[in-house]
Amino acid sequence: MDSNTEVLVAWRSGLSGWDALVDRYSRLVWSVPRSFRLSQTDAADVYQCTWLCLAEHLTRLREPDHLATWLVRTATRQSIAVLRTRGREVSYDLWEPVSVLPSPDEVAITHDRQRRLWSALMTLNERCQRLLRIAAHSPELSYAQVADALGMKLGSVGSTRSRCLADLRRKVGDLR
C-alpha cells in the first residue's frame, strides 16, 4: 500500500491498514514529544494519545495526504498540554538542604516571566507558535526538516522565523 488514502481505505474495510499507518508514521509521531524534551514516560503518553486521537477521528479526515501534518499538530498539542500540566508541578527533593531551594521571590519572578512568555506566544498565529516551538525545542533540525514538518516552503522558514521572533519580542515587551 503506497498512499495514505489506500491505507485509510484498507483500515476502514477492516484490513490491516492500521499497522501500515503506525509503521509509516511511528518515528514522526515519537519525534514530536521528544522535541519538547518530555520524559520518556510523558513522551510515551503523548505518542499513545496521538494514535488514539487518530483512531477517534480517522473517519472524519478529509485530506489523507496531509495525515503527517495532522499527526504532528496533534502530537504538538498533546505535548503542550503535558508541559502545561508539568509546569504547574514543582518537585523538590526532600533530602536536599533547604538552602538549595529557590526563594519564594525567585519562584514568583520565574513564574511571572514564564507566564508572560507563554501569554505572548499564545497570541501569535498557529504557524508562528509551531515554528517557534520547534526552533526552541529542536534547534538541531535543518530548515529543510522544519519546512517538511510544518508544510512550509523551504525558502520561507528563515524569514518567517525572524518575523515570528520579532513579533514575540514585541508582545512580551507589551506585557511588562
Automatic annotation (TrEMBL):
Alphabetized, the UniProt keywords read: DNA-binding, Sigma factor, Transcription, Transcription regulation
DNA-binding recorded as keyword = yes
Per its UniProt entry, which superkingdom is the organism in?
A: Bacteria
Gene Ontology MF terms: DNA binding; sigma factor activity
Sequence ranges assigned to domain RNA polymerase sigma-70 region in this UniProt record: 21-88
- Pfam families this protein is in? Sigma70_r2
Name the Gene3D superfamilies for this protein. 1.10.1740.10, Winged helix-like DNA-binding domain superfamily/Winged helix DNA-binding domain (1.10.10.10)
For this chain's UniProt record, which GO biological process terms are given?
DNA-templated transcription initiation
The UniProt entry, under NCBIfam families, shows: sigma70-ECF
Stated family:
Belongs to the sigma-70 factor family. ECF subfamily.
Protein name per its UniProtKB record: RNA polymerase sigma factor, sigma-70 family
